Amino acid sequence: xxxxxxxxxxxxxxxxxxxxxxxxxxxxxxVERFSPDSYNKIIQxxxxxxxDEKGMPTLEEHERIxxxxxxxxVQSSSLSEVIYAGHxxxxxxLQVYYxxxxxxxxxxxxxQFKDCVDKIxxxxxxxxxxxFDFLLxxxxxxxxxxxxxxxxxxxxxxxxxxxxxTIEHTFQFPEENMMFQFMEEVNLGDTSFNTMSYSNTQVxxxxxxxxxxxxxxxxxxxxxxxxxxxxFNYVEQFENLAEKFSGEYNGWESDTINRVKAN
Length: 263
Prior knowledge:
The chain is 35% helix and 32% strand. By secondary structure, it is an alpha+beta fold. It has 2 domains: 10-135, 2-Layer Sandwich (Alpha-Beta Plaits); 139-259, 2-Layer Sandwich (Alpha-Beta Plaits). The chain is globular. Pfam families: DUF695, RraB.
């Protein structure tokens, strides 16, 4: 599989692993190649680096480890029966993950990288648990990273994060009674908000496969500054609370931020 062909389908995100900040890049291109009858082994290649206090590469090490990773991916892309699944950087190591059936060609290739690889692990993974449950981002991780991207965008546009922003959170629920239970929980909790509204009837949408989906909508409006962890805490709180009542938290938006994006 060519790296260049897969490059447009990589998803990068920040996460926490054992309490440590880690950065993960996952190859989304390979989902269609999953089969319990092939590519049953997961190979984890560990590449150490000198880290800062957060476990990330130091400025000097970042260039080196990035170059070593590029060399590794270029070499492994020539192995037709080896699938690159993704890599994770954190806690002083870059971990690179591959799927294959026969690990010998990959081990032969890795013999060229003895100067930068300190450990190689091989495990059976018939159901690709490492890929689906560990490497792929969860819905919450995707929302947290989208929030981080928005804040980075505001900083780049020289907006003051200490200003008050009107934030609108959106939720959907398949059943009306679950929607009302969710709203009651929010009202009885310590969540600070300006308004909460809901749809009296179901909203029906048509999906890309022409199937139809109906649900009730709840919107919660808050006034928040974005210079604290509050927005991240609310995203996590609302994700878990919506799931508790069989709903989905769709994320948040702000008219002010949308205008900044438009410019």
